[in-house]
Amino acid sequence: MAASIADFAFDPMTLSVTKGTTVTWTNSDGAGHTVTADDGSFNGATAGGGGTFSHLFTTTGTFAYHCAIHPSMTGTVIVSGQ
After folding, report:
1. For 39, how many CA atoms within 13 A lie in the half-sphere containing its CB?
2. Alpha-carbon distance 65 to 15, whole Å?
3. Structure confidence by residue, pLDDT tens digits, 6-48
4. CB contact at 8 A, 80 and 20
């Protein structure tokens, strides 16, 4: 599943995926960003201009995340069992 980071925002802000899905965020901004789970379950940095971060979701639930550098940037991944 692909997501993007552009204009200091995650797009889409909410993703719905099934357990076992890998989400890859691609940074289109010139600035660096992180994809950091609020609960600490994942944390990755993306370099500006095409940098990526991927995470495999192996459990169901709702995972809120943010950019640790720019905390106004937030998103959510909803992982279902099916």
Report:
1. 7
2. 11
3. 999 999 999 999 999 999 999 999 999 999 999 999 999 988 8
4. no
Q: Which residues pair with 25 in a beta bridge?
A: 3, 53
CATH class, range 2-80: mainly beta
Query: How many C-beta atoms surround the C-beta of residue 35 within 10 A?
Result: 27
Sole residue written with tokens 């640790």 = 68
Separation CA 36–CA 41 (nearest Å): 8
pTM, rounded to two decimals? 0.94
Inter-residue contact 29 to 17 (CB < 8 Å)? no
H or E element at residue 63: strand 61-66
Q: By CB neighbour count within 10 A (0-12 exposed, 13-18 middle, 19+ buried), where does 81 fall?
A: exposed
| Per-residue confidence (pLDDT) for residue 17, from 0 to 100 | 98
Among candidate residues 60, 63, 16, 61, the one with its CA nearest the CA of residue 35: 63
